[in-house]
Amino acid sequence: MKRVVVPGIVLAAVAVIIGAWWLAFHRPQAAPAAQEPSAVPAARVSTPIDGSKGPAGVPDPRGGLPPSLPGVSSLVLRDQIRDATDLRALYDRTKDLPDPTGERAYRLAEAIFECSVFVDSPPEELSARLAVTKAARESPRRQEVFNFMVERCKGFAGSAAALREITEALHRRAEVAGYPAELARSLRSEARLRDERSDQVATALLDNPDADVLHELAQYLDLRNRYSPQWRTAEAAIRPIAWGLLECQYGGDCGPRSRPVVMTCIAFGACDLQRVEEAILVQGAQNTVNMAMQMRDRLTRQIAARDWTAVGFVERVKAP
To answer: Where do the structural domains in the chain lie, given as residue ranges?
Structure first.
């Protein structure tokens, strides 16, 4: 399973802390989470560091067609799960509701898996472990956000095996329903990594990707190419950040309540951030952001042109 780095860039530094990469994260029929208080500041309109207008303002090389962006119902579900103050109660209330697309199962599984880092130790010990800097250890605001995460996850404390069983069952349900991000996630199994037909599935999903699909396929490509010299280049440290920014471009949750921003607050005490790009700057330099944005723009063009070799479907190299 998975999930939110330049020398440690938060998109990857946070990935290390929380257990996988971005990010990634994400979800109608249950009570809207807007009625539940969140420890994270309310979102406000902000402009990305590069001055662009966000997903709707990104020029598209496919003749004006917009990128694949989430619909209103998907955003409601995503925000409901992201902001839930009691994730176990939300899971119990919604796990048996109709889920024909598998989206709810996928998003619940991802959110519940994130809880594994917040329930494996006493809060005091966990707080000390996750505080990377002195600023984090001394920030009252950071402590509020940390307490929110512990409180939201406490219903899954006590049994790592039970938590894993729940998330695996949810992922199986999402895969059976054919949810695209779950199909992309399934490609990361060892059996499928060795099956070259997986590339056909991956590139088909990239024909009309959304943020979650990109999140999963970035991890698939990293695993697929782990032994390839073509993949381990000077840009390797920037690549996960660029894919994370690509998720933002395709409608991913990259604002003040997003996983990378929240985890940056918990890890580094930087709790007034509004965008993922700002979270990158907590550890990286402006040059890192600029390089990642340049790579993101190349990826956008390469995906639109279906230049799969440039995207990362390079010659496979077997383990030494």
So the answer is: 10-305
